[in-house]
Amino acid sequence: MSLHVIVGAGPVGSTLALQLADAGHDVRILTRSGRGPDHPRITRVRVDAADPASLTAQTRGATVLYNCANPPSYTSWEEHWPPLAASILEAAEATGAVLAITGNLYGYGPVPGPMTRDLPLAATDHKGRLRARMWADAVARHRAGAVRVAEVRAADYVGAIEPMNSMAVLYATQAVRGRPVLTFGPPDVPHTFTYVPDVARTLAAVALDERSWGQAWHVPSPPTRTVREVIGDIAAAAGARRPWMIRIPRPLLRLSYPVVPLMREIGDLLYQWDRPYVLDAAETTRTFGVEATPWDEVVAETAAALTGRSAVVTG
């Protein structure tokens, strides 16, 4: 079987590594810490992926290089993403490996309807504009014939996620503990959530299919529900009472911006929670046959993880 190299051992990187290893592929997972999931076919390597020479050395012989990395903090994207993305792109070009990128929906900015993959990247915040620039750089190298690249874009994650880096899991954690759920937007607005293993399956599907190269694809996700419905489903599956949901007043949130950098970063993206945020991934399903995991399975796994009844994906 072929060698697959994954940068990052967070929820997506770890899940992808296990899926590929279970399918019989050799996997090399690269992180600063040398951590990653245990599996006979997975090799964990400590490396600074922002160093092009080191990353290229670890990528040689790989069929696919997956960018499943994330900067060390949500407030450090502008500092860490540009050199990291450039290094990964350089390693793919130097080794001939297909580059499969884990993306998100920030680059689209506020949109009036469902998000399809042909929408322009018209972000209004610095994180979205950064993601758009990173994709533009990758596509330019692809069109120049220097690298083969595809990106998969997902909505907010749901599932057994550790560390917690999803608004759905943050809200569900409060609900499962029987606490009032404090939300950043109106809880009755529809919002798409994406199951982490579906992100990994989509990455694996597009990586070796030349029809995907030079394009971005959306991850098939469960039917869109309101935030109240999503958190209510998870709470019920965990045996908790129906959650009481309270929207945090926007003026109160703004008061925290000068003293809490994380809240300032979240504030730039609150448009995602103030209006319907709907992901359309029908073309991915038609082209590659990838379908979303049934919602009841997603709910059961998320609830089990939050109540300690199953192992949580770690990285």
Tally the helices: 12
Q: Biggest sheet, open or closed, and with what strands and sense?
A: 7 strands, parallel
Across the major sheet, the strand order is: 3-2-1-4-5-6-11
Mean pLDDT: 94
| Topology, number of strands | 13
Give the strand content. Answer: 15-25%
Description:
This is NAD-dependent epimerase/dehydratase family protein. Pfam families: Epimerase. InterPro entries: Epimerase_deHydtase, NAD(P)-bd_dom_sf. The chain is of the alpha/beta class and 315 residues long. The chain has a domain at 3-155 and 195-221: NAD(P)-binding Rossmann-like Domain (Rossmann fold, 3-Layer(aba) Sandwich). 40% of the residues lie in helices and 17% in strands. The strands form 4 sheets. A 7-stranded parallel beta sheet has the order 3-2-1-4-5-6-11, with helices on both faces. Helix 3 (77-95) links the parallel strand 4 and strand 5. The two termini are 24 Å apart. 45% of the residues are buried. Mean pLDDT is 94; it is low at 310-315.
Please describe the topology of this protein.
Blueprint: E1 3-7, H1 11-22, E2 26-31, E3 42-46, H2 52-59, E4 64-67, H3 77-95, E5 98-104, H4 126-143, E6 149-154, E7 156-158, H5 167-176, E8 181-183, E9 190-191, E10 193-195, H6 196-207, E11 215-218, E12 225-226, H7 227-237, E13 245-247, H8 250-256, H9 261-267, H10 271-274, H11 282-288, H12 295-306
Parallel strand pairs: 1-2, 1-4, 2-3, 4-5, 5-6, 6-11, 7-10, 8-13
Antiparallel strand pairs: 9-12
Helix pairs in contact: 1-6, 2-3, 3-4, 5-7, 7-12
